[in-house]
Amino acid sequence: MMQALFYTGPNQMALQMTTPPSLESQEVVIGIEAVGICGSDMHAYHGHDPRRKPGLILGHEFAGKVLQSQSKLWKVGQRVTGNPLIVCGHCKYCEQGRDNLCSNRTMVGMTRPGAFAEQMSIPGASLIAIPDSLLTTHAALTEPAATAVHAVELALKSLVTPLSDSRVLVVGGGAIGILSALLLVHKGATNLTVAETNALRRETLQRHVRADLLNPIEQSIEPAAYDLVIDAVGSAKTRLMDLEAVAPGGVVMHIGLQDWASEIDMRKLTLAEITLLGTYTYTMEDLRKTVEQLDRGDFGSLDWLDVRPLKDGAKAFEDLDQGKTASPKVLLCP
Q: Phi/psi zone of residue 225: left (φ > 0), alpha (ψ -120 to 50 degrees), beta?
């Protein structure tokens, strides 16, 4: 038997004993050593994701060691992280290298048990080796960091003004927001603002990111002023904010999905020739690149991480829900 943190109903998580995963053909069983709580896990926790039903082990931002292997790609003892999107490899999107859009994708922590557990199974083709120099807790950031990498690189392809000369606004100081901000600074952004409503997170951002900070509840954002806006929240309110803040000819990169639908200012989008981009997760290549970037230190020291034992997972969800944690990312360690 093993311990696992189950989503048991809206606003309910419970640590339970359960059967370890079986070893299937071409798959491996991983001993989970660190796993992050994602915004999508919180969305499920609140009962807002019909795809994630009670009785499920959530968690898809993982790092650990191979315990068992039926894959020729991996041996017992190897350190790994991986792609929680299980892709087919043969649809047109996979063949184009855009496997994040795979027509037949399934997902760890949604269509199969996730990583809030002592062990998890996954196809060997989904895994990526962790270098010995990379801390396991840092390797567990690969998935959210790759989301930031994918989004920032897509945005920069459309940005006309050089990043070093651009005014940049990141909306939201959660994990994707802080990782996007850190990556933008690494890539040369010198005029960066981060909008975050949580005072504890603003304190964390102040210590770790070279950026101006504002609370959009109390402070207005300068209209038509930013060449690039990255929305790491994705609420109806932030989408309106994005379109108000972006300068003519600028770029809005939309990552977050707090609200699934809303009205936006289509008149400004059209008349000011705004580029509005959506982004979904990352490709396998993005994940490999992100492991290298984490190992090089492109995202900084990462000492803002909040690391807790798996047994305290239910409390971690409560703290995140109530805005009581200063860290944008809580990691659970079985």
A: alpha
Secondary structure E strands in the chain: 2-9, 12-18, 27-36, 56-57, 61-69, 79-82, 85-86, 106-107, 119-123, 127-129, 167-171, 191-195, 212-214, 226-231, 246-254, 275-278, 306-309, 330-333
Residue 259 — pLDDT band, cuts 50, 70, 90? Answer: confident
Does 56 map to a domain? yes
Question: One-letter amino acid identity for 36?
Answer: G
199-235 pLDDT tens trace:
999 999 999 999 999 999 999 999 999 999 999 999 9
Non-local CB neighbours of 260 within 8 Å, separated by 6+ positions: none
Q: Which residues pair with 212 in a beta bridge?
A: 193
Please count the other Cβ atoms lying within 10 Å of the Cβ belonging to residue 319: 17
> Are 298 and 201 within 8 A, CB to CB?
no
Kindly state whether residues 136 and 150 are assigned to the same domain: no
Q: Residue 291 domain-assigned? A: no
Name the nearest CA neighbour of 19 among 120, 127, 124, 122: 120
- pTM, two decimal places: 0.96
d(CA 330, CA 34): 10
Beta bridge partners of 4: 16, 117
Encoded tokens for 118 = 């002592």
Alpha-carbon radius of gyration of the chain: 20
Instruction: Report yes or no on 50 lying in a domain.
Output: yes
Distance in angstroms (rounded) separating the CA atoms of residues 251 and 253: 6
